[in-house]
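[job 4417] fold queue: 2 targets
>>> target A
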Amino acid sequence: MRKLVRILTLVLPACCLLPTAYCFVQVGQVPVEHDAKAKAILDDLSKTTKAYKTISAEYEMLIVNKDKKQVDKQTGKIQVKGNKFKLEIPGNLIVCDGKTVWTHNKDAQEVTIKTFEPNSEDGLDPTKIFTIYETGFKYKFDKEEKTNNVTYNVISLFPTIKPEKKKFHTMKLYIEKTKKQVHEIKMMMKDGGMQTYTIKSMKPNAELTDASFVFDTKGFKPDQIVDERDGK
């Protein structure tokens, strides 16, 4: 679980927490570079993302060290509906109904229950993988890049909120030009390594019921459930 928290909190606290409707913080509320082309692309990306009622996606995370050697590689699935989410990564399932977070450690067969606190230091809000760019960064347009007949706009982002506390110095967004969707996020780490998050598939507006964002603890013994909510 500690490894999971380290992975998720490395990226997500770098941006504002937007748990309901992917609200857009207008460029100009934070210091930014005056890059009109990058701003137009990001505005279109935000508009497209906000229009989705739900998101269902599969992604891959790759971590390499400063010597370009692979340190970790994981695949995951995420579903998002408003402020609700479900995240599946190897060995763990995290489910949130907007108020409560259930973390099922499959190896230990243990369920941890917490109150969802997206504004806390350790608040886990995986929905931000799609809107991480919206605040706290200055930015510039890098280039257009074509891979497998798909054209991507590449934009570099640089943290402006307590950058000295970030473990990365630059984040690169690869945005599919036609669909206006984030395809890849590359984080250049201060230690010389790199983390890459690649969206392998993305299905917006999939039919997701509210019940799918509630974890059923039936079938677990009392000693397999750790309830850390206040008053529990």
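>>> target B
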Amino acid sequence: MRQRIPFILVCLLLLCCTLVFAGAEEQTSGAFVYELKDDGTAVILRYTGAEASLAVPAALDGHPVTAVGPSAFLANPALTEVTLPEGVRTLGDSAFKRCDALAKVALPASLTEAGVNPFAGCGALAELTVAPGNPNLLSEAGTLYSLDDGRLIWYAMTNAPGDYTLREGIRIIGADAFCECDNIRKLTVPKGGVALTAIGRRAFYRCENLRAINLEDTEISTVGADAFSGCLRLSRISFPEEVTQIAERAFQDCGGLTELNLPETITGIGEMAFRNCSRLTRVKLPEGLAAIGKNTFAGCGELTEVLLPEGLGHIGGGAFQGCAKLAKVDLPESLNYIGADAFSGCAALEEARIPESCGYIGPGAFYNCRSLRKLTLPEELYTINSSTFFGCGALAEVALPEELEEIGERAFFCCVSLREIVIPDPVEVIGDWAFAGCAALEKVELPEDLEIVGRNTFDGCGMLKGLPDLSDLYE
């Protein structure tokens, strides 16, 4: 009987949930799918019709329409003109996003709340009007503003190509506000009268002709995720002293950036923030930075100089992956973590001195660093992970730490210049293919207590002589 009680309780709980949400189920009225709110008003969830010129009804099945939900008209190919009725108070995020033919929209005086750019990607939208008497929304010169929070909501993709000066009183450039607007060349934030505090997610995403924006006189603390991602011609960016965070992918694929000087106030840089900035040549990172995220500078093929601050403790996976011209990097004494593939493909990197504080070097961290000649490993490194130095063809000698316990598979695969290796006594495991393809390897000293050796560990080591029979140690 006791075993049945939990089952009965679960059934009762499910029944209660069903009763609670029964009133929120979807309703259909013609081409409109909607749901009822507790006050009996309707929220449009989806529109499935094919009207070109649409006047959204003021009521559905007798229920007043007060809101258009997020993505309700998403990518409708037929719409060319839309009028929202009086009584609608809320327009949800991306409500008309990618309605490619939409050219004209009329918003009512009752509409006071608009979410993340409801018209993002509407490439034909040239006429957006707000009814007289609206206390919050302002449509002016192909731009929609929310006055209560000082937010620029939408900038028309049909505006004439040129420069844009931010309107006085605007504090926020909203998420997706200029998304894919290739008509904006330069954005100017005027000195005085504008207290810009935030740039939202994807605010300038793929504005491919944006060349410059001045932020030094603003009060921005965070540059949002993907804010300038894909701004191919952005060559100059100036930051205010107030900025502390650059979010993930903020400047990804900004192929025009050549040099990066970040304020000392920055303490966080998100993953892939400067990924594929293909012309970036020099980076100086701020003193307060404690970590570099995953793939932050991956694919910056012209990067030749990186200045890392003392105090940096973490270099994320793939942080400098594919930075083929990075010839030298001074790792700070504070560093304790190098992620997987962190310097993978840094073909020009000649020297790596890994500080004693660093207890972890991830798999593939120096994969195919084919110019790496000199390598210093910390004494308290206990594991060399798989493929860590795979393809480091110029590496002629390496001193393994005395406390080392394990060498992973393919750790030194195809290190074709390596002539001699002394494997310290604590090592009990050498992974498969660990030294395979080391064509110049002539001498190996193995530890007495070695327990496991990969079957192909020394394959292709044609110069190696006097290697004992290891078959008893094969996995």
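[job 4417] complete. Note on B: The two ends are 53 Å apart (CA to CA).
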